[in-house]
Amino acid sequence: MKKFHSHGKLLLTGEYVVLDGATALALPTKLGQEMIVSETDEAVIDWKSTDHTGETWFEAVYNIADLSSPKAKVPEEEVSKMLFLTLFAAAKQSPELLTSGKGFRIISNTEFPRDWGLGTSSTLIANIARWLKIDAFRLLEETFGGSGYDVAVALEATPITFEKQGVENSILRTSYYPPFSDRLFFIHLNQKQNSRESIRHYREQDNSAVRSATEKISALTHSIITCTDLLEFELLIEVHENIISQLVGLPKVKTRLFSDYKGAVKSLGGWGGDFVLATGTEEDMQYFKNKGYHSIFPFSEIIL
């Protein structure tokens, strides 16, 4: 039996423009996804996924022979389909998976609620890549797509700066634990984001606007990493919000939901759902609780 574990992520800077080469700061979360792999004698992959409560939410059995067959029938159900295609892509990088004659019983446990947006797909990709000793970024490219920052965090298990450079990625391990971390809180908005519309609007921007925003966000990322003053940090994330708001054609989350809050509020990742970052004190968090947001985590509680 082998165990693999990858951490979830929160994208502090660089949402959207990370797709076009902006330097982004991403932080690993304490919670992630564990995958337990046991060999069996039957040439199948017997897969079970459990949630943070231990309840099974998905089960499937795939014939290993189908993972190399172009005529294999792809499952219609979305989760089963994506897992099959992921295993199919992984098998192309790992021929021994197809020829060993062995099978595998796999239990994959997500340690956080799946609607939190902390990286169910990226931690899955990282765990499968670790298990089969294959290229996680190639696997991502052939399956879910995206910039790859989330997979990088899952693999590195440390704060990173991430910069997409053509087919290559610049991934630099860094440290991020600012002196005002006790004034940083992560709040879940209780709604799963659908960022297709904002990505569409972003993709409609002319190249010069995207290029300008990319340069500005990269500079902001480096300033945020070295910032030691809370007021300066709040100013930097406000500037960041203004730039992205203009690019994606959406109002800032503070304008939309928390206009009378005295601290700063920043979207994390795709706009419209999942987590936001808020500055303030423990007492200030009552403001969000009064509005019905009860999944509130201090920096030290959620960030690895």
TrEMBL record:
Q: Which SUPFAM superfamilies match?
A: Ribosomal protein S5 domain 2-like
Alphabetically sorted, this entry's keywords are: Kinase, Transferase
Task: Supply the source organism for this entry.
Answer: Salinimicrobium oceani
Q: Which domain of life is it from?
A: Bacteria
Q: Identify this protein by name.
A: GHMP kinase
InterPro entries in alphabetical order: GHMP_GYDIA-like, Ribosomal_Su5_D2-typ_SF, Ribsml_uS5_D2-typ_fold_subgr
Please give the Gene3D superfamilies that the UniProt record associates with this protein. Answer: 3.30.230.10
**MF (Gene Ontology):** kinase activity
Say yes or no: keyword Flavoprotein present: no
